[in-house]
């Protein structure tokens, strides 16, 4: 269903919003109200519910005349569910949105205006994501990639006034990310924008890295404001399910296998080895079951090889330019 209004139906910069819910009853109403209150006309709002067991479905039904809802019979994961929404839409841009994010009314408008003023190879954009529990602090202003192949939310925990400059970033957080559909189509591997082997966690980092390899850039726009209630906060790791922790751990290695280049692995070897020497004993002693994620890695190696081959063969950006973003 279309929400384009006020004579903007002919606009070429159509935007759809995609939200994946799973037991999101606490957050989804505030999220949807903020989406419905956007000053930029939206082409469509799609919610994919991953078999929620709480009151999420009841809340969503109240919005069924304004939102297109896709009901999944099981929890397929963040990546497959978002791919499901992407495949069903035809807008020029799509906003991947977590249900625990509340957008400022001008969030989409600010991103689109920033993209109009930027080059044609900007494939993704994000705004200034603030912590809902303390809006003076940054949740994310994009992604930072370290030489140890660990990604972090840029500026997380710092004062928000420090991040007033619009600039290019390595990539954007999947919490509230605007992507260009033509970029998504070009970098998709076997029809998957988000790698569905990832299920959840680091799929946005993987997309950012792959987009870089294909010659696309990402933009941070400080005028676009949103508020994020982060699900995985400091000190709450033990509350995460073993399955989620396994995905978070092993997806880093899947990402490295598909996207990295041996020359730069060797160049950054001190940082990589230091992290491995510190992290492996921790997992071995404190969370040994997380290491069972390697069984999934080796089981899926043939598929990973095919994905790596496609990505490496389609790469259009010079390696040196890609790795300038690794800190």
What brief labels describe this structure?
single chain; 327 residues; ten-stranded mixed beta sheet; two-stranded antiparallel ribbon; 12 helices; 12 strands; globular
Give the % helix. Answer: 25-40%
Distance between the termini: 43 Å
Sequence of secondary-structure elements: EHEHEHEEHEEEEEEHHEHHHHHH
Low-confidence stretches: 4-10
Mean pLDDT: 93
Structural class category: alpha/beta
Radius of gyration: 19 Å
Q: Give the tally of structural domains.
A: 1
Share in β-strands: 15-25%
Q: How many strands?
A: 12
Largest sheet entry = 10 strands, mixed
Q: Quick summary of this structure?
A:
The chain is α/β, with parallel strands linked by helices and 327 residues long.
Question: If you had to describe this structure to a student in words, what would you say it looks like?
Answer:
With 327 residues, the protein is an alpha/beta fold. The chain has one domain (99-327). It has twelve helices and twelve strands. The strands form two sheets. Strands 1, 2, 3, 4, 5, 6, 7, 10, 11 and 12 form a ten-stranded mixed beta sheet that branches. It has a two-stranded antiparallel sheet with strand order 8-9. Helix 7 crosses helix 10 and helix 7 crosses helix 11. The longest helix is centred in the C-terminal third of the chain and has 18 residues, at 242-259. Mean pLDDT is 93; it is low at 4-10.
